[in-house]
Amino acid sequence: MSELIIGVDVGFGNTKTSHKVFSSGVIKHSTKPPISSMVVETNEGFYSVGNPKITIQESKMNNEDMLVLTEAAIAEELKMQGMTQADIHLGVGVPLTRMGAEKEPMLDYYKRNRKLVFKYEDVTYSINLLSINVYPQGYAGIVNYINKFSRLAVVIDIGSWTIDIMPIRERKADAGNCKSLSLGTITCMHKINEHLREQFNGEADEILLKDVMITGSSIDLPPKYLTVIQNDLKTYVEDIMGQLRALQFNLDTTQLIFIGGGSTIIKNFLDAEKYPKATVIDDVHINAKGYEDLIRYQIRNGGLK
Question: Does domain 146-280 correspond to CATH entry 3.10.580.10?
């Protein structure tokens, strides 16, 4: 079989590969759904992935959802290449602040299923996991950029549920001072809809909220809704900057590098004149690409397990 390197970034909001992205919502069915689009079939049942309704779990390793999402992600990558069988070096990640506690459990989770045979969209896939490699989220994404950073920098990875903060000193990650804040985009969307209910007795669907987050506007929203949403997103950005100040980062002298799915909010709603040292890398695939780059580096240096 062909040997491939595939990075899969399973987030609470979205699952990303180096080429694909879809919602991390999973629904298990007792019988086969009538439509096979984005349906994974295993010995345990049928699963629809890409569902917008997401359940936040304390640990992604508590059930089979993360494995199902990984299978769908691998299938999407293989489908691009017209393949259904492959030997794969798999790259996945956990927050840098959780590497000590979660790296080995994550390895064990995937090692239980090194031979994967499943159907995706009614096509059978046969996968052999040659190696499973767990890397720190955020750091993996910026490893190819780090030499371009200032001597003092901080990486702010804005995810669906958390914001992970990683200081960079002399172009090296300061792992001992990383922080994780429960201030992700899901929290932001909940607050926006709370304000919309208070003012208009209505809410904006997540699809429309994400439209404003990604593009800065939406033609599908009434102007009065759009104004509230845009103002709340500006407030959200200022809340993030306030958290950085509270963590003793000097925003005048520290380069601010924003990554993750929520970085588009910074791109669209940050006052650039007020924060001239802010940089946005708004590539949602950045961690998955980073996992693949780190695997290639380890292969060259004989460090894979």
Answer: no
For the domain covering 3-139+288-300, report its CATH number: 3.30.420.40
pLDDT, tens digit only, all 305 positions of the chain: 678 999 999 988 899 999 999 999 899 998 999 998 999 999 999 999 988 766 666 667 778 999 999 999 999 999 999 999 999 999 999 988 888 888 999 999 999 989 999 999 999 999 999 999 999 988 888 888 888 899 999 999 998 888 999 999 998 888 889 999 999 999 999 999 999 999 999 999 999 999 999 999 999 999 999 999 999 999 999 999 999 999 999 999 999 999 998 999 999 999 999 999 999 998 999 999 999 999 999 988 877 65
- Tell me the domain boundaries of the chain: 3-139+288-300, 146-280
State pTM to two decimals. 0.89
Query: Do 3-139+288-300 and 146-280 fold alike per CATH?
Result: yes
Residue 198 CB contacts under 8 Å (≥ 6 apart), including other chains: none
Terminal alpha carbon distance of the chain: 19
Q: Please give the C-alpha separations between residue 221 and each of 32, 228, 232, 265, in angstroms, as whole numbers.
A: 36, 11, 15, 17
